[in-house]
Design a protein that fits this description.
alpha+beta; Transferase(Phosphotransferase), domain 1; six-stranded antiparallel β-sheet; three-stranded antiparallel β-sheet; 28 helices; disordered N terminus
Length: about 700
């Protein structure tokens, strides 16, 4: 694809009387660019990290693949630039989303005139790079399989490999190019909706700023010109940028207005990003991205036969000239793309009859044959028989509708609604002649929905056990509640692993198995810890029995064998751990033995496998807190709070910040935790300690009294 050029508009200083006011409009990164010698090169050490390879060069800096020796030599990306006015790190710090590149830290190197952003290494291939390389093949041969092969080739070009998740990789390899790119844009539209709710516009959406992971997942990059929405009539806008080929008409008009020192004529809001991501989809499906020519999405089906009229209509609304004529937001656009992928009626544009017919046939491939058979049977039946079969067909159709409605609710995670639909369908099918197959399918789906509902409860309880297992001051009554919930789920373990309703997706099956093994470890540990002295030995026997049963169900694992006391030591597990939960289990065991360094090693290994996971980040933060590495602890809990703002994350971050002497920030975290959960006795204790250190004795004594009251 042709390379595009960013423009950045800044109002010029006031001109002399009689002269025309001017705006600097130049390629991004050129103002204030340092000499090339100021930037580092591969092989250097920067911020205690060794630069391994160069990933890309921009107008104002470079991106390097590096290894951080202080944290188990983990791979990271260092983005080095010299423009001190950039505040991309402030934007990234506010966004914690699976499909937006996260930020580890930001720092400045005044001696070299450089600024550094540290981010996880998730991929090296951009959508722009994929399109460039696919251009060498006939368009009819473009496919998800070819994309996967190109991503594998890019992996081989660097000195380390990123683990590929099996389920997304299989989905990618089975996809057409059109389905892959629509799914990519649908995912990014959801990420943009997340950013827009926080008043952040990207304003530079283009294939160069979309990273594709080795298993085909998109990550949004480069928020260095992101900013809040701009209302119409604004004049005090310090800067506005973008890439002309992908900018919305109102963004173009706003840049021109800044150039002429006029008020901005049309508001620039989330619908501007919606237009830009639409241009990305239009271009990837075969349209031309050209700043001088408006996109013509309704002509795409003639260029690319894989583009349906429905998809062209979605793009036409997304790329409307007037913002009011587009989708109201990126979430509505993402929903229509999901409906297109799932062969469902569209919500934001009209549904053309040819498209509706094709979608209906794909959703119900045997329905037409059944309808024809029933019609022939009805013609041949007598008048009395016709009435009977008409009522029978009504019940069957209603049962089928209940089946489809339940499946839709199940896909959306609404398991209660799905169960109600399947039960209603079962009752109809029981009174339907010839409905045995339908009744069996409804029964199978009902079993599956019950299992998925119970799996959701399992994930919630295991998450709570993770959250409280490593805290020193978890209230006893909460421990009893969690122990009872864990006991109930462990008693239902056969239902959770029962495949009578058919196998779920492989990733879900694997998640249930791992969650059950974690439940066995966390619940038995809690059961022993809170048992009264007179019942402690009985609790230990029950725990050993449960852990042995877990090993018989799921096979040997180092975490289960160590917890059950069968053999081995934490520092020398009987077999190598493989999964994130196993490393976390070994880390918790090391913490219980007081070996904080060994615990940190296991938690870091878990973090390397799942750098964006809440559980490994939370446990790593606890280890850092125990080792008195308060800066690492504060970073870990900040990441956790961004993913899931639980009061416990703010409480633990407040402890780390208090130890670092950042009292105001620590006090804000303690206040937030108590506002969300006024029953946290340890939060009162920590805030009381902080008040005492600040000389606020009266406030400290009030908090200590509250802590004592809640601990009684």
């Amino acid at each position: 694809m042709p390379k595009t050029r960013n423009v950045l508009a800044r109002p010029a200083p006031e001109a002399d009387p009689g002269q025309t006011a001017r705006v600097d409009v130049a390629p991004r990164g050129q103002p204030g660019q340092p000499a090339a010698a100021a930037l580092p090169v591969v092989g250097e050490f920067l911020e205690n990290c060794r630069l391994v390879a160069e990933l890309g060069t921009g107008a104002s800096g470079r991106a390097f693949l590096a290894r951080q020796g202080a944290l188990a030599d983990r791979p990271i990306v260092l983005k080095v630039y010299a423009d001190a006015s950039r505040d991309e790190h402030l934007t990234l710090a506010r966004l914690q989303h699976t499909n937006i590149m996260p930020l580890y830290w930001a720092s400045a190197l005044p001696a070299r005139g450089l600024h550094v952003l540290a981010m996880p290494y998730l991929a090296r291939t951009t959508l722009s790079g994929l399109l460039d390389r696919l251009a060498g093949f006939p368009r009819e041969t473009w496919s998800g399989r070819r994309v996967f092969d190109l991503l594998e080739d890019d992996q081989a070009a660097l000195p380390l490999r990123i683990a590929v998740q099996e389920q997304p990789a299989q989905m990618l390899k089975a996809s057409s190019w059109a389905d892959f790119i629509v799914r990519t844009v649908q995912t990014l539209a959801q990420a943009l909706a997340f950013a827009h709710k926080r008043d952040i516009l990207h304003l530079d959406l283009k294939p160069d700023n979309i990273l594709i992971t080795p298993d085909g997942q998109p990550i949004l990059l480069d928020l260095d010109i992101a900013r809040p929405p701009i209302p119409a009539g604004s004049t005090a806008v310090p800067w506005l940028g973008g890439t002309p080929e992908f900018m919305s008409p109102e963004q173009h008009a706003a840049v021109d207005a800044l150039d002429d020192r006029r008020p901005i004529p049309t508001a620039v809001d989330g619908r501007s990003d919606l237009y830009s991501i639409g241009v990305v989809l239009y271009h990837a499906l075969g349209g031309e991205a050209n700043a001088a020519r408006r996109p013509a999405p309704l002509g795409l089906p003639r260029v690319n036969p894989h583009v349906s009229r429905g998809l062209a209509d979605i793009l036409a609304r997304c790329l409307a000239e007037a913002p009011a004529a587009r989708y109201p937001d990126c979430a509505a656009f993402a929903e229509d793309l999901r409906r297109h992928l799932d062969d469902l009626p569209l919500a934001g544009v009209r549904n053309r009859w040819p498209d509706r017919w094709r979608k209906w046939r794909r959703r119900r491939p045997f329905s037409l044959l059944l309808i024809l058979l029933m019609a022939g049977f009805g013609v041949a039946a007598s008048a009395a028989g016709f009435n009977f079969h008409r009522r029978n067909e009504d019940r069957r159709l209603q049962a089928e509708a209940a089946l489809l409605g339940g499946q839709e609710a199940q896909r959306n995670g609404q398991y209660e609604a799905a169960i109600r639909q399947f039960l209603a369908g079962q009752e109809l099918a029981e009174h339907t002649y010839g409905g045995d197959h339908l009744q069996a399918e409804l029964s199978r789906r009902l079993t599956q929905a019950h299992r998925l509902q119970r799996a959701g409860e399992l994930k919630k309880v295991v998450g709570l056990l993770h959250l409280y297992a490593l805290q020193d001051h978890t209230p006893l009554r909460l421990q009893w509640v969690l122990e009872a919930a864990g006991r109930k789920l462990w008693a239902d373990r056969r239902l959770l692993t029962d495949r009578a309703g058919g196998r779920l997706e492989q990733a879900v099956e694997t998640d249930i198995r791992e969650q059950l093994q974690e439940l066995a470890l966390l619940w038995t540990d809690l059961c022993v810890r809170i048992a009264p002295p007179a019942h402690e030995e009985s609790a230990r026997r029950e725990a050993r029995h449960a852990l042995t049963d877990a090993e018989l169900m799921f096979g040997p694992s180092p975490g289960l064998r160590l917890a059950s006391g069968l053999n081995g030591a934490v520092s020398d597990p009987p077999m190598p751990p493989r999964a994130v939960w196993e490393f976390c289990a070994l880390g918790r065991a090391a913490l219980a033995e007081g070996d904080h360094a060994e615990a940190a090693r296991f938690m870091q290994a878990a973090l390397d496998l799942d750098p964006l996971g809440f559980v490994p980040n939370f446990h790593f933060g606890v280890c850092a807190l125990r080792q008195k590495k308060y800066d690492l602890a504060a970073r870990a809990f900040s990441f956790c709070a961004g993913q899931d703002p639980r009061p416990e994350c703010f409480l633990l971050r407040g402890e780390a910040l208090a130890a670092l002497g950042e009292r105001d920030r620590a006090l804000a975290d303690f206040n937030y935790a108590l506002a969300k959960n006024p029953e946290m006795g340890n939060a009162y204790q920590c805030r009381g300690n902080l008040y005492r250190d600040m000389g606020r004795q009266e406030d400290a004594e009030m908090d200590f009294q509250s802590a004592r009251r809640l601990s009684d």
